[in-house]
Every structure is written in structure tokens, then in C-alpha cells.
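Sample intake sheet
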Amino acid sequence: MGTILDEIIAQKKVELDTLPEGPLKVDRKPVSLAEKLRFSSTMAVISEVKRASPSKGDINQAVDPAEQAAKYAGGGADAVSVLTDQKFFSGTMEDLGLVKRIVDVPVLNKDFIIDARQIDNACRHGADVILLIVAALDDASLKALYNHAESLGLDVLVEVHDETEMERALRIEPEIIGINNRDLKTFTVDIANTEKLLGKYRDSGPLFIAESGIRTRADALRMQRAGARGLLVGETLMTADDPAGKIEELKVTV
């Protein structure tokens, strides 16, 4: 029986034929997430626009992506992540474009990328950063897609969940690694996962971001002590009455 991740990747393969072909002109300089992480004196908060998820169902279907992103940026978010998967997360590439036009912080295209055409499409819609999920790619694809994104001037968030994936990620020497506390095969979440992996790998070179399950200042402090430089926070901010206040709470000193 396949996992949720298997289902999502199968859907991505179906969608590839709908993507535009042809040469890509990049007439802008993408905003660097790595620089934000490297030079911030506080934990960098990557605030996510997310309407729904397979694990939680509807989170906030009525959200206006640009309005939400403006709240995030105005509240001190260091970057904005936009979930663009339509079938499983109710997102669109248009959401990404709307957000990019409203904020000047780096914008991450959060999706399940398996093909260079998706990276080109993300770039067309204003992405500064793309996500590559190690669990969804073989080694050759991971390296090729990483190199392709870099050739366009994009930063890449390379996402891992366990030691095997960490070892695979480190082989391509990425600037940024995101440690997902959510197991994409079961969608269970445990923030101790970041502590466990950084207990072994915190001095291996990349800038580390803790993803998923971050809700409180205490959680942020745990991630800071583990060695993370940033937090990717979605559901907590999507359901917060005061997103700016929550961002401020999470921006602990590093």
C-alpha cells in the first residue's frame, strides 16, 4: 500500500504535461534566504500560507494569500512560504505570484518538485527559493534539480527527515537543509526529530531550518538550542488570531 507521499508524487507526474515549455527569461535577482538565515540575530521565521493539508484537512480555505503574506511580513517574518499544490493542499501557483507582488522578503515555493519544468514555473511566478524533498527524489535527480535551481539564481531548501536522507542531502553540499519533523509517509509530527538529527549533524556545514510542529516560544527555544537557524511555521500561523504576535514570540535570539 502506497504512502501519502507516493500519492502526491504520482499526481505530480500527471501534472507535468500541463506545465509550460520553452526558454525561461529571468529578469530579476531572487532574494536570498541563505543571507537572511546567516545574518539574522534572531531565529528566522518562514511563515507559510497554507489552506489545507492531507493530515489536517481544511485549515483556512478562505485565506487571501496576499493579505496573509502582508500580515506575516509586517509582523517580522523573514520569509514567506506558499504551498502551491492544488489537489492535496488547495494551493495554486497564482497564490505564489500574488504573494511575491506584495512582500519584499524571500518567497519559498513549497511544493513536491520532481522535474526541472516545475522549477522554471516557480521562477516564472516569482519564487526566490524552491523546495527539494530528499524522500521524493533519487540521488541523480536531487543533484540535477539542485543545480538547475542554482543556475536560475534560486536558493534551495533541501528537506530531510532522517539520518539516511541527511547523508544523501549532505553529499550535494547544500547551503540550507530543512529538517521536517513530520514524517511524510505517515504525517505524524515530533519536534524531537530536529534535536536528534542536529545532535549528530549541527556542525556539518549547512544552515538548518526546523519544519513542522513549532507552536510556542518553548518549541522555538528547543530548536535554537539544537542548532536551528530558522523555523518553518504553517498551521500555527494560519490559525493564529494575531500572526504578528506569534511571529514575535517565535523569534528567539540565536
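Comment: The CA atoms of residues 45 and 77 lie 5 Å apart. Residues 4-13+34-250 form a domain with the TIM Barrel fold (CATH 3.20.20.70).
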